[in-house]
C-alpha cells in the first residue's frame, strides 16, 4: 500500500476521479451538495458545514494532506462526465491492512447501481492492488439505501453500535451498523 493512489479508476459505466484541491473541483462539489441538502442531511452531519465553495475548497486541501500521508483517498464519481457524488477510503492502516469506506450520491443518480459499481471499483483497487485485507463501512441503521449497497456488495453485518451518535435531523440518538468485507470474501465477479 506504499504506492501513490491512482488518479482515475474505471468501472463499466462510471469513472472515479481523484478529488484534488482545485477550485473547479470545489465548485462542482459544492454545487452538488447544495442542490442535495435535503437528500444528504439525514445521514451526513458535514452537510451543514458546507455553506460556500470555500468550505469545499478547505475540505479538499485538508483531505489532500491525508492523501499524501497515505491515510485517505477520495474519488469523485462520474457518469458520462456528470459528477454524481464521492466515495472515500479512509483510516487506511497499512499495518493491519484495513480501511473504512464512506460514500454519498446525488439524488438524481440513486437507485441505478452507481454506488454499487463505485464500491466494486474501489474494492478491486484495494484488494487486488494495494494489499488491503479488510474494508468496513458504517451507516445509520435507518439508512436503507446504504444498507442495500453493503448487502449487494457482499458485506457482512458485524454488529450494531447502539445510540452512539446524536442525529440532529431525527433529533435522537442513532444506532450505527458496521459492515465489513475481507479479502478472502472478495470475488472478482462483479454486479456491474
Can you walk me through this structure?
- The chain has about 190 residues and is α+β, with helices and mostly antiparallel strands.
- The protein has a single domain (about 10-185), classed as 3-Layer(aba) Sandwich (Aminopeptidase), CATH 3.40.630.30.
- The protein is built from 5 helices and 8 strands.
- It has helices at about 25-35, 35-40, 55-70, 115-130, 145-150; strands at about 10, 15-20, 75-80, 80-95, 100-105, 135-140, 155-165, 170-180.
- The longest helix is centred in the N-terminal third of the chain and has 16 residues, at about 55-70.
- It starts with 7 loop residues before the first strand and ends in a 10-residue tail after the last strand.
Q: Which SSEs are present, and which pair or pack?
A:
Layout: E1 8-10, E2 14-18, H1 23-35, H2 37-40, H3 53-68, E3 73-79, E4 82-93, E5 98-105, H4 114-129, E6 134-140, H5 144-152, E7 156-167, E8 172-182
Parallel strand pairs: 5-6
Antiparallel strand pairs: 1-2, 2-3, 3-4, 4-5, 6-8, 7-8
TL;DR?
The protein has 5 helices and 8 strands. The chain has helices at 23-35, 37-40, 53-68, 114-129, 144-152; strands at residues 8-10, 14-18, 73-79, 82-93, 98-105, 134-140, 156-167, 172-182.
Amino acid at each position: 500500500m506504499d504506492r501513490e493512489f491512482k488518479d482515475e479508476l474505471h468501472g463499466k459505466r462510471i469513472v472515479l476521479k481523484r478529488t484534488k484541491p482545485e477550485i473547479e473541483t470545489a465548485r462542482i462539489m459544492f454545487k452538488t451538495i447544495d442542490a442535495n441538502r435535503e437528500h444528504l442531511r439525514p445521514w451526513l452531519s458535514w452537510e451543514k458545514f458546507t455553506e460556500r465553495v470555500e468550505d469545499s475548497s478547505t475540505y479538499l486541501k485538508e483531505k489532500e494532506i491525508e492523501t499524501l500521508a497515505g491515510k485517505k483517498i477520495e474519488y469523485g464519481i462520474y457518469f458520462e462526465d456528470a459528477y454524481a457524488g464521492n466515495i472515500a477510503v479512509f483510516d487506511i492502516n497499512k499495518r493491519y491492512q484495513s480501511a473504512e469506506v464512506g460514500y454519498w450520491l446525488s439524488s438524481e443518480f440513486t437507485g441505478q447501481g452507481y454506488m454499487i459499481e463505485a464500491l466494486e471499483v474501489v474494492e478491486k483497487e484495494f484488494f487486488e492492488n494495494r494489499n488491503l485485507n479488510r474494508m468496513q463501512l458504517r451507516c445509520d441503521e435507518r439508512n436503507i439505501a446504504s444498507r442495500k449497497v453493503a448487502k449487494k456488495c457482499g458485506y457482512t453485518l458485524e454488529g450494531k453500535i447502539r445510540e452512539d451518535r446524536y442525529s440532529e435531523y431525527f433529533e435522537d440518538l442513532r444506532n450505527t451498523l458496521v459492515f465489513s468485507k475481507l479479502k478472502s470474501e472478495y470475488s472478482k465477479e462483479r454486479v456491474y
